[in-house]
Amino acid sequence: MLAIWIGFCSYSINLSLDEGWNPPWPSYLTNWTIIINVAYLCLSIAIMIQGEMSKPKYAIVAGEDRKKYKDEMNIDDTKAEKNSKPLPWSCKLLWILHTIAFDANLVVCVTFWTLLYPYFRGVRPLWGELCRHGMGLLYIYIESFFIAFPFRLLHTIYSAIFMLGYLIFTLLLFSIGAPPPYPILDWKGDPAMSLTYSVLIGVATLFAHLINFTGCWLVSSARTRSQPEPNLMEGKLVEADTKSAVPLEVTTDATKTDSSLHNPL
Fold first, then answer.
1. Which pLDDT does position 203 carry in this prediction?
2. CB 180 within 8 A of CB 170
3. DSSP 114
4. From CA 115, how far away is CA 119, in angstroms rounded?
5. Is 85 helix (H, G, I), strand (E, B) or coil?
6. 76, 182 contact by CB (below 8 A)
7. How far is CA 69 from the centre of its chain?
8. What is the torsional sign of CA 136, 138, 141, 147?
9. Which helix (H) or strand (E) holds 157?
10. Is 234's pLDDT higher than 50?
11. CA distance 121 to 126
């Protein structure tokens, strides 16, 4: 998948070069999203390789989940600190990239096919547009069914910062006289329309995060319901056997003792 996204990145750069770098390649939100996808996949592969080589003997637990980990393992604070480690910076960065990729791919896909495709119809091959404005969303959604990646509602701040950075970048392009990347972000020709669509893109980003959060919650809930809890069930069975066996043994001994006291022989 990494090779595919590197191919998309190279394809997009070649398109910009064929168009005389006018507008520049970094001016498109699609290309910003492709960079996030490539960075996310590269870091994922690096973390997996590092984990396989080191094989740590402790659990890596996010700070907000440490109390839950301690309760599930039924251990005190000392053992929890010894048996678990906080998230390293690489995993934190991966978490941020995953959140941005999740939201940005949805915004790019929906925005392009609903608002921008009529402007670009016939300009570029349809298969290329489908790959650049749909493949990322398809991959990240399929991945969510196989990888239990946590998705937090408050992490929308990362996607919001990403989109805000892109919109500020379009203003910088306008200040140096570069052509607008999209007709809806033409700050020179129609600043009011550009401001309106900038606000709508910001709202769409928040809404996309809410949709993704709901989807991840539903997938996580379904996965939790489908998985048995052997440790919990075994613990209940052992507890039940212990409670039923001990009184029976005591009762039997007591009966024998009482009968021996009343036996005249």
1. 94
2. yes
3. I
4. 8
5. strand
6. no
7. 20
8. negative
9. helix 156-175
10. no
11. 8
- pLDDT for the residue 220: 79
Helix (H) or strand (E) holding 84: strand 84-85
What is the rounded CA–CA span in Å between residue 142 and residue 137? 9
- N-terminal to C-terminal alpha carbon distance within the chain: 88
Question: Could you give the CA distance from residue 256 to residue 39 in angstroms, rounded to a whole number?
Answer: 76
Q: Give tens-digit pLDDT for 143-196.
A: 877 777 788 889 999 999 999 999 999 999 888 888 888 888 989 889 999 999
Mean pLDDT of all residues belonging to the chain: 74
| pTM > 0.85: yes or no | no
In 3-state terms, the chain is what percent helix, strand and coil (to 5)? Answer: 80, 0, 20
Helices 89-111, 191-226: axis angle to 10 degrees equals: 120
> What is the pLDDT at residue 14?
67
The two tokens of residue 104 are: 């940005």
List the structure tokens of 105.
């791919």
What does the angle CA 126 – CA 105 – CA 25 come to, to the nearest 5 degrees?
65
Domain boundaries, the chain: 2-55+90-228
Q: Which two tokens stand for residue 169?
A: 């970048």
For residues 163 and 198, what is the distance between their CA atoms, to the nearest angstrom?
Answer: 9
